[in-house]
Design a protein that fits this description.
Distance between the termini: 24 Å
Strand order of the largest sheet: 3-8-7
CATH class: Mainly Beta
Number of helices: 2
Helix content: 10-25%
Number of domains: 1
Mean pLDDT: 88
Order of helices and strands: EEEEHEEEEH
CATH topology: Beta-clip-like
CATH superfamily: SET domain
CATH architecture: Beta Complex
């Protein structure tokens, strides 16, 4: 098995995605899978607090992995998020190709390393705004 899911090295991040094998720079690590839905449908899910695992494909469609915990790509965390750890940086990026999303290595990744991918500055600006205004409360993951 190339990847495994276990507790993230980032505080309060919950689970993380790790590689069991070395990965070369530019290699597709994993496809981001989930339910392909319209953006309008995703916004309805946000209102019902049933969101958090979105990959934006284009201005109409996205991949929602909220209800698909079996798809491991959703466990890749962002090292530049709310819980930063000195020395940990993103080592991957999202690539949209042919209507599919992939996590791709930005550098050589050693076996045993956690996969980190940017969620974008806009994502974290939105999270910080929601925290500041009481719309969002980060959850402490269960052990």
């Amino acid at each position: 098995m190339k990847l495994k899911v276990k507790r993230s090295q980032l505080p309060n991040a919950g689970k993380g995605l790790y590689t069991n094998v070395p990965i070369k720079k530019g290699e597709k690590i994993i496809e981001y899978k989930g339910e392909i839905i319209e953006w309008k449908e995703y916004m309805k899910r946000v209102e019902n607090d049933k969101d958090g695992y979105l990959l934006f494909l284009n201005n109409k469609r996205c991949i929602d992995a909220f209800n698909t915990p079996q798809y491991e790509a959703r466990y890749a965390n962002d090292a530049a998020g709310l819980s930063k750890v000195k020395g940990m940086k993103n080592n991957s990026y999202y690539d949209i190709e042919g209507g599919k999303g992939f996590i791709v290595s930005a550098r050589h990744i050693k076996a045993g390393e956690e996969i980190f991918v940017s969620y974008t500055k806009e994502y974290w600006d939105c999270i910080r705004y929601n925290i500041k205004n009481g719309f969002y409360k980060p959850q402490t993951p269960k052990k």
